[in-house]
Design a protein that fits this description.
It is a single chain. 51% of the residues lie in helices and 11% in strands. The chain is built from 10 helices and 5 strands; from the N terminus they run ββααααβββαααααα. A 5-stranded mixed sheet has the order 1-2-3-5-4.
Length: 250
């Protein structure tokens, strides 16, 4: 992600390294939340917001709107699920940027390098940011991706080795994602915090690794119970010749 892709951000939330919030995302989430909060809170918010419309200078008016939305974002506790999840994820104190996802269901967390600097980027939809239950469910899974990427024992590499050059990259990335997600949810299940059930993940795994035939259940069991997965082991698995020939008879 180039630096130009990081939008203008507000800053809030006490933490060793502050969490930065996209101003448009905060506005969208607050407006959704105000529609469902107590009548007195909604009335107070709208009264403050209406007064800002009287400000004639456009730049100042936009700054006042951004400040208002950030104030209510914190007042309504909408920052808390992400602050709590980031604080408990065991990540280094890299800056965290919370920016819009393309849509609900497209939320993710990633580690981004811009020159010598590294950032944790959390992409989330405004509707999800306004839904703390859903947010708390998806954040541990997404932040464990970042945790693995930073773990020398996992050994994450963004590119596949030369041995994968003759295989379709789209298919390899899908298979890699499914294995990685399986290991993450297996580890989270051991802590009682998995948002996706074992049976749901097993169905997805079987659909992607069907060519393994009767070996699919054992393969799933291996990855679901893998406490210390590695990038190299996942790559070796998805390059298994059985996945690139004809399915075995089950």
């Amino acid at each position: 992600m180039p630096a130009s892709d990081l939008p203008q951000l507000n800053q809030a939330s006490p933490r060793a390294v502050p969490i930065h919030w996209d101003a448009c995302l905060v506005e969208g989430a607050v407006l959704r939340c105000v529609d469902t909060c107590a009548r007195e809170q909604a009335r107070a918010f709208r009264a403050e917001r209406d007064r800002i419309y009287a400000v004639r200078e456009a730049d100042r008016r936009e700054r006042l709107f951004a400040d208002l939305h950030m104030k209510w974002f914190v007042r309504l506790g909408m920052d808390r699920p992400i602050v709590a999840a980031v604080s408990s994820a065991g990540l280094p104190d890299f800056p965290v940027h919370v920016i819009p996802a393309r849509a609900v269901g497209a939320e993710l967390a990633d580690l981004v390098r811009i020159g010598p600097e590294r950032f944790v980027v959390i992409r989330v939809a405004a509707d999800t940011l306004a839904d703390p239950g859903r947010l708390r469910a998806i954040l541990p899974h997404e932040l464990m991706h970042v945790h693995d990427m930073l773990d020398p024992g996992f050994g994450y590499e963004p590119d596949f080795p030369p041995a994968a050059a003759h295989r379709p990259e789209t298919i390899l990335r899908q298979r890699y994602r499914v294995v990685w997600d399986t290991t993450i949810d297996g580890r989270l299940a051991g802590r009682g915090t998995a948002a996706v059930s074992r049976s749901e993940r097993e169905v997805e795994f079987a659909a992607v690794f069907g060519p393994l035939g009767r070996d699919v259940p054992a393969a799933f069991e291996r990855w679901w119970n893998e406490a210390r997965p590695t990038h190299d082991a996942i790559v070796a698995f998805i390059l298994d010749e059985r996945l690139h020939g004809h399915p075995q008879e089950g």
